[in-house]
Specification:
The complex is a heterodimer.
Chain A: H1 3-9, H2 24-45, H3 47-55, H4 77-82, E1 96-101, E2 111-115, H5 116-132, E3 140-143, H6 151-163, E4 166-168, H7 175-184, E5 189-192, H8 194-206, H9 211-214, E6 219-222, H10 229-239, E7 242-249, E8 254-260, E9 267-269, E10 274-279, E11 293-299, E12 310-316, E13 331-332, E14 337-338, E15 343-345, E16 348-350, H11 352-362, E17 369-376, E18 379-387, H12 397-415, E19 420-424, E20 439-441
Parallel strand pairs in A: 3-4, 3-5, 5-6, 6-7, 17-20, 18-19
Antiparallel strand pairs in A: 1-2, 7-8, 8-9, 9-13, 10-11, 11-12, 12-14, 15-16, 17-18
Chain B: E1 2-11, H1 16-26, E2 31-39, E3 42-49, H2 52-61, E4 66-77, H3 82-92, E5 97-107, E6 110-117, H4 120-129, E7 134-135, H5 137-140
Classes of the chains: A alpha/beta, B alpha+beta.
The complex binds zinc ion.
Zinc ion binds at residues 261, 263, 268, 323, 325, 327 of chain A.
Chain lengths: 447, 141
Amino acid sequence: MIPHLWNDLEGTFFPESALDYMPESRLREVQLQRLRAVIALSYEKVQLFRERMEAKGLKPADVRQLADVCQLPFLVKTDLRDTYPYGLFTVPMSEVVRVHASSGTTGKPIVVGYTAQDMEVWKQVIMRTLYAAGFSRGDIVQNMYGYGLFTGGLGLHGGLEGIGATVIPISGGNSERQIMVMKDFGVTAICGTPSYFIHLIETAQKMGIDFKRDLKVKRGVFGAEPWSDQMRQYIESTSGVQAFDIYGLSEIIGPGVGAECECQDGLHIFEDHFLAEIVDPKTLEPVPDGTEGELVITTLSKQAMPVIRYRTRDITAFETSCCRCGRTCRRIRRISRRSDDMLIIRGVNVYPSQIETALLKTEASLPHYLIVLTRKDGLDQLEVRVEITGGMLSDNVGAMEQLQKRFSRSIEQITGLHATVTLAQPGSITRSEGKAKRLLDQREIPN
Amino acid sequence: MKIRQISIFLENRPGSLSALCRTLADAGVNLSTLMLSEAGEFGLLRIIASDADKAQTVVEKAGYAATTSEVVAIQVPDKPGGLAAVLTALDSHQIPVEYMYAFAQRSGRDAIMIFRFGDLDRAIAALKEAGFGVCGAIDLF
Ligand SMILES: [Zn+2]
């Protein structure tokens, strides 16, 4: 290595991140080589995959170039349930050093496994995630992701130790204690879900703690749920914490599939380990770069449980330009929504994130809200309950009615649907400390 | 001259007003006047209390959304045309009234009305010029 180059970089260059800058031709070679290996492995070891390949008349040798991935069968969430718990594992359990499981809201959870080498890869991609967000040795990091079967807590934990940060494995919940620890332990960086962090900003305000004045938190990585640019602006302006989006899902590896760099303009996918495609969720055909569709991922290096063409249900698009940071791995746009949390209201497709955007366009800070769907005389009714805060309140009834109208108009502009906006007292909408629950669907589904 | 008023957001459902009143009573807050204006499914409760700071703390601690504003208490002659005279004085200076309501107590022979204006100082000057009594906190509590 050229010594002066190292000096110029002044410790900002981390060897683990070198792979983010691999020349593109080399990156595609690595991907193809790994893709062929993972297909051969799965074909040999995973009955489900072999049967689906046979049904399509395909052999592993038919994959000669990266584009051939389009012919391969998809894998969906229910496949992981149907093969519960270890049906997709390719190694004996003596090789599996870790399992994680998704929270099963309906039925059995989804189980994923890792070999020692998978754990190493996981650590490496989280380190690359953290470096991209400006984390480094010397940071004192409060990890608010849940520890346990969920991949978030322990996944981030491994990478945080990898970069040599001081980790506070606090997990989620107990908001006042979170703020106390943040203050007393001199926390400089955090990891967690964006909705929980917004809840913490409110908690700090109630405790009389000013994030910017009293705390040292400078940056955070946020993920595990779709969030918006408006939420980022809110977080950054109220708390002074620079907010980076990270992407991952348990079925693939957990967090560490993709991450925002300092440009905060889309998430770089760690393409040497994950092959990303974007397809039309209806036709399942690839869409042109820059067009929105469902993200489909193939793991390229995972051993214990490789997945081929996993349908993530996350809606995004490839960024078509090169990132100013110089990383060569491709970027996807921030995941704004999932194809399966789409609501159909009076025949119109609506995503809860659109309601959120509408509320944020009206008020600078995101109020607590609940989307309530009912059916009256065969017609869907959309109601949005919005909690009033002291800051929104006027002593003038007319001004409050105007606020109500502005909310309603903004929702209509964005979704095309008339919404009844109900103003509610603070605290009247149930809070959840993890992923925000924003929907109450009381429509009866006709049989 | 100016009186502090606290406006509290309430959902228009059974029990919400009594719950708030109980909260204030339990904390020993004396209400001089209380005025509810409704708009469909919500209402704003405006209160004037001798100890406005305490009232505000109690209400906010109990989790209500509340905002304070300044209002003017005006002595209105308790005779036919008394209120009209006040309004005429304001009209002649083109000072619009945002809202008004009656204060629970009287001052001698006069009734007391609470007025909210966009520009309080201009309104006070106009009323004094027209010879109306403007009450301070001392006169009221
Ligand atoms: Zn970049």
